[in-house]
């Protein structure tokens, strides 16, 4: 069957878009997001400067596409770990998802920096990035949710001055979990990203040598914070 001109144009657009994003990722690794330039990307690819704007009208549009791709890639990795650990104890599933997030970050340090590093000057992420950004957090929350449904979640204590805030947070993103779990989820999410960021950005140099063991130990502590029993705890 002969492809239609419309189909050929669509395929060409997909291929050129992919090439633009690949070159942009290369430049992120070499120069950082703040230096990303559509004209420089076009020049490397042999495109006219005016042509690249038909694919990405601005630098911010290109950054947004790269950010969504990074979030989706990380989200897929976390979701695969969640699915692959189905049937295991909640602490084991938590550890599996955390290890998957760390593994992705170490394999994609510049993309991790793009989504969890310093903000890019002059860029504000649009609402279109939110669904992709939520995927990895939802994978971790699903571990907590499944443990709660199975009666295996030890609901953390909550100080009185956080009760109203906990209720608001729970209503916003975990309405099916006890309110006290919501602040714990936010706290461990921030701590996990910081832990991984320290490793990715070299801040553990001459501080932590046995990083695999250190990560496992710390992740077990985060599991306890959110009410999960560690992976090696007896049932």
TrEMBL record:
Keywords: DNA-binding, Transcription, Transcription regulation. InterPro entries: Homeodomain-like_sf, HTH-type_TetR-like_transc_reg, HTH_TetR, MT1864/Rv1816-like_C, Tet_transcr_reg_TetR-rel_C_sf. This is TetR/AcrR family transcriptional regulator. Residues 14-74 form the HTH tetR-type domain. Residues 37-56 bind DNA. Signal peptide: none annotated. PROSITE patterns: HTH_TETR_2 (PS50977). It comes from the Bacteria. PANTHER family: HTH-TYPE TRANSCRIPTIONAL REGULATOR RUTR, HTH-TYPE TRANSCRIPTIONAL REGULATOR RV1816. Pfam families: TetR_C_33, TetR_N. One of its GO terms (molecular function) is transcription cis-regulatory region binding.
């Amino acid at each position: 069957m002969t492809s239609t001109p419309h189909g050929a144009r669509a395929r060409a657009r997909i291929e050129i878009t992919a090439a633009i994003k690949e070159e942009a990722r290369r430049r992120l690794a070499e120069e950082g997001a703040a230096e990303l330039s559509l004209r420089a990307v076009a020049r490397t690819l042999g495109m006219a400067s005016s042509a690249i704007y038909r694919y990405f009208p601005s630098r911010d549009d290109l950054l947004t596409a790269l950010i969504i791709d990074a979030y989706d890639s990380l989200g897929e990795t976390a979701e695969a770990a969640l699915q692959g650990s189905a049937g295991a104890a909640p602490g084991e599933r938590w550890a599996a998802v955390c290890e998957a997030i760390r593994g992705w970050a170490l394999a994609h340090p510049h993309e991790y920096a793009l989504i969890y590093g310093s903000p890019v000057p002059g860029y504000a992420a649009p609402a279109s990035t939110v669904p992709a950004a939520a995927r990895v957090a939802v994978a971790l929350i699903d571990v907590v949710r499944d443990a709660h449904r199975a009666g295996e979640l030890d609901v953390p204590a909550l100080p009185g001055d956080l009760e109203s805030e906990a209720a608001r947070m729970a209503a916003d993103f975990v309405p099916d979990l006890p309110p006290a779990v919501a602040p714990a989820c936010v706290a461990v999410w921030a701590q996990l990203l910081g832990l991984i960021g320290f490793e990715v950005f070299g801040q553990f140099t001459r501080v932590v040598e046995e990083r695999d063991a250190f990560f496992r130990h710390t992740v077990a502590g985060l599991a306890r914070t959110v009410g999960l029993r560690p992976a090696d705890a007896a049932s």
